[in-house]
Amino acid sequence: MADLKLLTDRLMEHKRSEIQVIIQEAEKEAQQSIQASNEQLKVEKQKREERIKLEQKAQYEQDKNALSNKKRNQLLTEKQKSLTAIFDSAKERMENLTQDEFQQFLSGVLTQYQNKEVELVLGEKSRSFVSSKWVEELNQAGKTVHLTEEQIPKKAGFVIRHEGIDYNYIFDALVDDTKEDILPTVSQKLFQ
Q1: d(C-alpha 158, C-alpha 139), whole Å
Q2: How do 144-152 and 117-123 pair as beta strands?
Q3: Which residue, 94, 159, 100, is CA-closest to 134?
Q4: Contact 174, 164 (CB under 8 A)
Q5: Cα dihedral angle (110, 124, 127, 181), rounded to 10 degrees?
Q6: Which ranges of 96-130 would DSSP assign to H, the alpha helix?
Q7: Phi and psi of 115, rounded to 5°?
């Protein structure tokens, strides 16, 4: 009986040893699994942080570009307003020429038509600056100018007709025509 007890004790001891080995292996596997999970979590955390940084950087660049575009557009709008004001001022200045300035300008233009017969059509706002007497004086000086009764309503300046062609010297049209040519120069001088 003692041998049976000894044999049972040994079997139990042997089973305990086997169970202990299984427990140690399970603990080892669990430890490895926990370590692998921690490594995987660390990698995922790092990837997430990198993705967030990239998204933030992209959003920053997008916001920066939007702000830069907004600033540029505001600047362009202000420049356009300034340029429009300058050309409007030029039109207004031309519409407000004195009689002497108007006649001097008209005489200068008429020199281009020396020895040619032309008709002079005045704008309504400039009609009072040119009289029949003044045109007669021009004709006595060697020009052949015929003042028409026709007027260009609500405009300052004049049109010269020569051989069926109208040459437009209406002031707002002159400013608009020269605008494209002088716009780069004016812009450069204003916004340096």
Answers
A1: 18
A2: parallel
A3: 100
A4: no
A5: -30
A6: 99-110
A7: 65, 25
| Tens-digit pLDDT string for the chain (192 aa) | 677 777 787 878 888 888 888 888 888 888 888 898 888 989 898 999 899 999 899 898 998 899 999 998 888 888 888 878 888 888 899 889 999 999 999 999 988 888 889 999 999 999 999 998 988 888 887 778 899 999 999 999 999 999 989 999 999 998 888 888 887 887 777 666
pTM: 0.61
The two three-digit tokens of residue 37, written as one number: 């999970």
CA atoms within 13 A on the CB side of 17: 6
Angle at 16 between CA 11 and CA 22, to 5 degrees: 130
- Locus of tokens 């920053």: 60
CA angle, 122 then 115 then 128, to 5°: 20
CB atoms within 10 A of CB 189: 9
Separation between Cα atoms, residue 109 and residue 13, nearest integer Å: 127
Handedness of CA 19, 23, 28, 29 (dihedral sign): positive
Any idea how long the chain is? Answer: 192
Q: What is the DSSP letter of 116?
A: S
135: CB partners within 8 A, 6+ apart: 120, 145, 146, 147
- Give yes or no for a contact between 119 and 146, defined as CB atoms under 8 angstroms apart: yes
Residue found under tokens 């600033």: 71
